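Backbone-to-sequence.
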């Protein structure tokens, strides 16, 4: 058809197609423990419309092999003394490369923890192997495919930059920090086993206070460093929020930027979502009621008209879960109900579960990780709370907005810039989408809950808030464009710095 042809010509003219090798420890839908997987699973689709074709290298954990049956062997190599089989797989529009090394990845448990919840003792070796394999793929390509840019995600991929530099592979490298709290820090005694040149044990490379940091290697040795929101990019340059890396990050300040995450609008779409009780959109918001009832049923809440509040989160200090217990009496007094679903730090989980016993039918803590439950809770809750102490971006609030569940968020990182507080000015301007409070403050959290519940009592105001929330732009569009622009800039800079180029 003619219009299509025009569109294609337009794309070809605007973009020189380019190939990206993404490297990460998880990718939805083949393996997920948190938001990293969602981003790794959805960004490549968005990059396609920017003329960027990505292939994503992840470890072939048993779950990955089971979830990606559509695959073939494309390589066999010896890496750090281990045999690695490289698979190419296709799954949900994702082009995957799987680093299959049974000695390191064929284990019970998750990507990082064993089946008893303890870190695998050789995580340094597991992710060094992922990184060294990535460097080999960057250098040699697979099946004639070669990347123009290598994009590393978090500490698990950080060492790729070191292996590429050591091998003199001249391809631009981007490192994205999804969470600075996880740095891949290990004792210096592992250094000889990494197979890197001695001079890399240096403060301008891997060395970190006498130890080794995989993330630092990525920060120091990549061409550009990004993080998942502009606010977090500023926060991590401060001593308070730099998690010991503020100085290192300041040394790369000129190449550090923040690009906010988007969401997969096909997977998180209340109109087509198959995990929820009733589909809806802005025009049929009344269908949310069937989802509220399903939530009441599934979680054993006392049925009622009071608001349903949810927390869908890792249950950790970062997420501010310990701030919830003190606000429970206030929530109950207002006739509202609360569901907390997640997994995490046993002391936090136990503390919260203890507190909730006395509120049977009003407060439910559900331990577990279930994709279906997360979808239903977004569709059937009135409010989703994210009391994070820090939050690089946060995806839960974006899903909540799209599903018309109003977010209450701590004013930090990506939460601060993706939710517009319903203060008087924002309400008057018709732009409010949720409620913000001061991070770490129980008093201010309660204040925000109180403001939200007061608004909830006024059906028209609530509807307006939901409408504005659901109209927010959550897509990858602008952010994918920024990544593509960054890749192209780096390629130009590299070409410029090579002999024989202007
Ligand atoms: P983080 O990656 O720091 O945990 P994000 O908000 O970026 O935080 O992403 C969390 C992701 O994990 C979201 O997709 C959310 O739906 C999901 N998630 C968190 N806890 C659970 C759970 N208990 N069950 C299902 N999904 C969960
Ligand atoms: C990390 C961060 C979270 C972010 C996610 C995806 O897990 O904690 O804020 O949304 O990565 O980038």
């Amino acid at each position: 058809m003619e219009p299509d042809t025009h569109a294609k010509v337009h794309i070809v003219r605007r973009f020189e197609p380019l190939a990206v090798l993404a490297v990460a420890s998880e990718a939805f839908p083949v393996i997920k423990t948190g938001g990293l997987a969602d981003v790794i699973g959805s960004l490549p689709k968005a990059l396609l419309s920017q003329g960027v074709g990505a292939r994503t290298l992840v470890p072939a954990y048993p779950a990955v092999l089971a979830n990606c049956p559509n695959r073939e062997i494309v390589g066999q190599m010896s890496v750090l003394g281990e045999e690695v089989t490289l698979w190419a797989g296709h799954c949900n529009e994702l082009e995957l490369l799987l680093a299959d090394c049974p000695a390191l990845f064929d284990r019970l448990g998750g990507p990082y923890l064993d089946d008893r919840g303890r870190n695998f003792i050789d995580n340094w070796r597991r992710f060094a192997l992922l990184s060294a394999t990535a460097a080999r793929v960057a250098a040699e390509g697979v099946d004639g495919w070669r990347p123009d840019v290598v994009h590393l995600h978090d500490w698990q991929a950080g060492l790729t930059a070191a292996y590429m530099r050591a091998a003199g592979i001249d391809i631009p490298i981007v490192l994205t920090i999804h969470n600075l709290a996880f740095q891949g820090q290990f004792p210096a005694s592992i250094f000889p086993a990494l197979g890197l040149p001695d001079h890399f044990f240096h403060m301008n490379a891997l060395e970190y206070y006498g130890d080794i940091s995989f993330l630092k290697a990525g920060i120091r040795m990549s061409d550009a460093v990004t993080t998942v929101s502009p606010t977090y990019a500023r926060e991590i340059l401060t001593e308070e929020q730099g998690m010991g890396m503020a100085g290192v990050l300041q040394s790369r300040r000129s190449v550090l930027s923040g690009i906010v995450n988007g969401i997969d609008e096909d997977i998180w779409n209340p109109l087509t979502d198959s995990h929820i009780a009733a589909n809806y959109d802005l025009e049929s918001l009344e269908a949310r009621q069937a989802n509220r009832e399903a939530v009441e049923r599934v979680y054993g809440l006392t049925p009622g008209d009071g608001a349903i509040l949810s927390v869908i989160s890792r249950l950790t200090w970062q997420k501010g879960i310990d701030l919830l217990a003190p606000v429970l009496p206030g929530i109950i007094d207002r006739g509202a109900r609360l569901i907390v679903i997640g997994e995490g730090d046993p002391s936090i989980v136990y503390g919260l579960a203890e507190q909730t016993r006395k509120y049977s039918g009003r407060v439910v803590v559900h331990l577990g990780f279930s994709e279906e439950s997360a979808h239903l809770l977004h569709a059937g809750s009135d409010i989703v709370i994210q009391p994070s102490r820090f939050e690089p971006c946060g995806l839960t609030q974006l899903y909540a907005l799209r599903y018309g569940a109003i977010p209450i968020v701590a004013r930090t990182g990506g939460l601060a810039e993706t939710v517009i507080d319903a203060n008087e000015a924002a309400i008057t301007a018709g732009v409010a989408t949720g409620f913000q409070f001061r991070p770490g403050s129980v008093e201010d959290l309660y204040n925000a809950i109180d403001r939200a519940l007061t608004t909830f009592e006024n059906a028209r105001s609530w509807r307006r808030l939901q409408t504005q929330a659901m109209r927010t732009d959550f897509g990858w569009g602008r952010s994918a464009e920024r990544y593509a622009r960054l890749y192209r800039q780096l390629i130009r800079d590299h070409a410029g710095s090579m002999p024989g180029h202007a």
